[in-house]
């Protein structure tokens, strides 16, 4: 029985949220004050991302990358939310160090997850990579607080900011237009319209010259 309890405890602490799940709620201290996830960024998207540690090289390139492109996220109605397993004083010291050495101000909230509560809740701690540092996770959370996309990177590989922004634009575009985005889609490209569900739809699709048809089920349209 004790072994079963131990296994269940491990499962509970390592279970990862999945695409389509409601974002697990939490309260935390950040560099801009206390937040509650369920109340954060009302009516906006959230891109929440973890980094392994403050004052480290790859993390510095990534966090300055988010800061430099913060306006692009704001234009997409999106708030940034960082995290690492460091104290609030470490975070502020790192923000100051980066600002002094590069001129880049990381003024978005960074969660001080010193007790690893949020990292465990979101599956950011992956023991085969590290038991004490969060992997490079990115969670795309929509205004209804539903997780829409998840990216994971190991400790030694930095993320691609262009891809993060592209994915965010694709999610919002597909929601707005009820379409799907094909390989390498970027803003301004044609999108995939839903396939026919009946023979009547099929006949209408064949006669529709407003769409680019590859086959009856794969057709693209300019929006």
Walk me through this protein's architecture.
The chain contains 7 helices and 10 strands. The strands form 3 sheets. It has a 5-stranded mixed β-sheet. It has a 3-stranded antiparallel β-sheet with strand order 8-10-9, with no helix packed on it. Strands 1-2 form a two-stranded antiparallel sheet. It has helices at 2-14, 57-68, 70-75, 88-102, 117-121, 161-177, 199-207; strands at residues 27-30, 33-36, 45-50, 78-84, 110-112, 136-141, 147-153, 191-192, 212-213, 219-221. A hairpin with a 5-residue loop joins strand 9 and strand 10 (219-221). It has 2 domains: 2-160, 3-Layer(aba) Sandwich (Glutaredoxin), CATH 3.40.30.10; 178-223, 2-Layer Sandwich (Antioxidant, Horf6, Chain A, domain 2), CATH 3.30.1020. Residues 1-13 have low confidence and may be disordered. It is elongated. By secondary structure, it is α+β, with helices and mostly antiparallel strands.
């Amino acid at each position: 029985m004790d072994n079963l309890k131990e296994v269940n405890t491990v499962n509970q602490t390592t279970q990862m949220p999945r695409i389509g799940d409601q974002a697990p709620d939490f309260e935390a201290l950040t560099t801009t004050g206390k937040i509650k996830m369920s109340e954060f960024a009302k009516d906006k998207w959230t891109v929440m991302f973890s980094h392994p540690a403050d004052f480290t090289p790859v993390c510095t390139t990534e966090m300055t990358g988010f800061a430099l492109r913060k306006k692009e996220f704001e234009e997409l109605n999106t708030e940034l939310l960082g995290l690492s397993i460091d104290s609030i004083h470490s975070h502020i010291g790192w923000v100051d160090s980066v600002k002094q050495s590069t001129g880049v101000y990381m003024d978005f909230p960074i969660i001080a997850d010193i007790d690893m509560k949020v990292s465990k809740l979101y599956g950011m701690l992956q023991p085969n990579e590290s038991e004490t540092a969060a992997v490079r996770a990115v969670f795309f959370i929509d205004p209804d607080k539903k997780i829409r996309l998840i990216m994971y990177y190991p400790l030694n590989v930095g993320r691609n900011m262009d891809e993060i922004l592209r994915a965010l634009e694709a999610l919002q575009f597909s929601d707005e237009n009820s379409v799907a985005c094909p390989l390498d889609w970027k803003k301004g490209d044609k999108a995939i319209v839903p396939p026919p569900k009946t023979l009547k739809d099929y006949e209408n699709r064949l006669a529709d010259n407003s769409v680019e048809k590859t086959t009856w089920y794969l057709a693209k349209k300019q929006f």
